[in-house]
Design brief:
Length: 249
C-alpha cells in the first residue's frame, strides 16, 4: 500500500504519456507546484517504476511514486493495461487517468480497470494539482472491529473489503467499493454529488466533473446484474440514495 507522503519531502508523482510535449509541460507545471516528478514515455516503463513483477537487479529500487498521472491511449501497453496490471498485482497507488475529449470509451475502460479519477484534455494544471493532492490524502486503515454494514440485500464488510448483494459477491474496484461503503453508512439519506466528492474522493474544493455519475452508473450496473431490483436511486436535482423501497431513479 502507498505510504503517506512525508512532510519534509515533496510528493512523488509519475507522469506517463507518449507525447513528449505533454510530458514536458506536466513536468514543468508539477515541479512548480511542489512535486517531485518522474516521467515515463510508455506503459512498460511505467510498470517498471511503479510495481515491477520481480526485482531486476540486487540494487535497492528507487522509491515508488505515490500517485500516477496516466494517459489512457498509448501505443503498446496502454494506460488501461497499466492500471489493470497494477490492480491485479495488488498495488493501490492512486491513478488519475488523462483522456482526450473524444475518447469516452477509453475513459470508461480506464475507470473500470481501477483508476481513481480522470481528467479530460485540455485541463487546468491548478485543477490537476488539487485532484492529485486529494488522491494523496490516504484514508486511515480499517480496524478489526469495523462492523458489517447491511442495507436490505446489500452487505459491506469494510475490514475484509467484501461486498455482496442478495448473497452474490460484487466485483468492485477500490473506488466503487468506497462509494458503496459511503452509501451503506448513510442508508435512506440522499447524498449530493459534492458530498460524495468530499467523502469518497477527498475533494474539498469546487470541481466540475461527472466522475460521481460515472461511478454510480457502474456501481448500479453491478448491483443490478442478473435482474436484481434497483437499490441505488437517483433523486433528480439533488443526488443519490441507497434504499430498498421504490422511488425515483
Amino acid at each position: 500500500m502507498t505510504a503517506e507522503p512525508e512532510t519534509d519531502r515533496p510528493p512523488h508523482v509519475l507522469v506517463v504519456d507518449d507525447d513528449p510535449s505533454i510530458r514536458r509541460a506536466l513536468e514543468r507545471g508539477l515541479r512548480l507546484a511542489g512535486y517531485h516528478v518522474t516521467l515515463a514515455a510508455d506503459g512498460t516503463r511505467a510498470l517498471e517504476l511503479i510495481a515491477p513483477a520481480e526485482p531486476m537487479t540486487p540494487i535497492a529500487p528507487a522509491p515508488a511514486p505515490q500517485v500516477v498521472v496516466l494517459d489512457v491511449a498509448m501505443p503498446g501497453v496502454s494506460g488501461i493495461d497499466v492500471c489493470a496490471t497494477l490492480r491485479a498485482r495488488g498495488t493501490e497507488t492512486p491513478v488519475l487517468m488523462l483522456s482526450a475529449r473524444d475518447e469516452t470509451a477509453d475513459r470508461i475502460a480506464g475507470l473500470e480497470s481501477g483508476a481513481d479519477d480522470y481528467l479530460v484534455k485540455p485541463f487546468d494544471l491548478r485543477e490537476l494539482d488539487l485532484r492529485l493532492r486529494a488522491l494523496l490524502r490516504r484514508r486511515p486503515s480499517v480496524g478489526p472491529g469495523e462492523p458489517l454494514l447491511r442495507v436490505g440485500p446489500v452487505a459491506v464488510d469494510v475490514a475484509a473489503h467484501i461486498a455482496t448483494c442478495h448473497g452474490v459477491g460484487l466485483d468492485l474496484t477500490r473506488r466503487e467499493f468506497a462509494l458503496l461503503e459511503v452509501f451503506a453508512r448513510n442508508p435512506g439519506l440522499v447524498l449530493t454529488r459534492d458530498q460524495l466528492l468530499d467523502r469518497v474522493w477527498g475533494y474539498d474544493f469546487d470541481v466540475r466533473t461527472d466522475v460521481v455519475d460515472t461511478f454510480v452508473c457502474y456501481l448500479r450496473r453491478k448491483l443490478e446484474a442478473g435482474g436484481r431490483p434497483r437499490v441505488l436511486h437517483t433523486v433528480r436535482g439533488i443526488g443519490f440514495v441507497l434504499r430498498i423501497s421504490g422511488g425515483p431513479g
